[in-house]
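Lab notebook page, bench 4
Experiment: in silico fold of construct C2
Operator: M.H.
Input chain length: 329 residues
Purpose: comparison with the prior construct
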Amino acid sequence: MPPLSLLDLAPICQGGNITAALDNSRNMAIAAEKYGYKRIWLAEHHGMQGVASSATALAISHIAAATNSIRVGSGGIMLPNHSPLIIAEQFGTLDALYPGRIDLGLGRAPGTDMATARALRRNMDASVEEYPQNIRELQLFLGPTQTEQKIIAVPGQNSNIPLWLLGSSLYSAQLAAQMGLPYSFASHFAPDQLLDAISLYRDGFKPSMQSDKSYVSAGLMAVVADSDEQANYLFSSVQQQFINLRRGANQPFQPPVDSMQGLWSEAERVMVNHTLQYALVGSPATVKDKLKRFVAATGVDEVIVSMPIYDIEARLHSLALLAQCENSV
């Protein structure tokens, strides 16, 4: 069974606040380390009422300071939003504070609406088109200083922080393979090209200074409870979230409901069920079977789970139950 890791968006729950969201993420990380999860990643999103991890490097430091051994990183930093030098300095600082524990996962989407992206980037020209070049520039800043190198990242140089490429398309899989980097596919919200992306990545992988062989993880939503009924109830929070995203309703993370009937249209129900088709929802026995079948179908080297659960105690319980599932598969 491949190792389990955790993806966290520091969800801001309805009736809660940002401080509570970040404290909950810290508590999840402490528990994940206790239960043997390999790493925890925080995601960069901007302008979302339900996500508190927009200043991702700061949130990573908050998590790393509260833990001792679990790897902590970004899932991901949206590189077109930032200059490579800024990211190198931020993550070089993180590596200096928490040596040997920091991962730098990179994406090319804005992580927000276009108006907010313009406020972040100022210059929208060719930002995405320059993505491969920006990755190489970042590698330069994080690696050994080259002869006659004029711009040096301090902190950053010689940190050699592991880079990952994140994506939900064949483009990102192909680029990760060409650059010889580990790859993480966002099948927790974009399932359609999962198997093709993994195949393309593995078939085209070229060894690099960082990685001599391919390594792929895949994202899954996970809601594990003592019974299937309880898990399905808790899962209604993320079902509401996806409907709100589709409708353009920017809201905090919603509490669960007894029934989704009347809250979504038939088209929305079909869309959400398709988008979340790989989600691990149910009792430990149910989830164990789903996880086993997913790993057999994909052959992934690592499973990274997001736990979209409103109540923090239920979230922590889900984390513990899923760890038990991994150990018994």
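Observations: The mean pLDDT is 94. The two ends are 7 Å apart (CA to CA).
Next step: discuss at group meeting.
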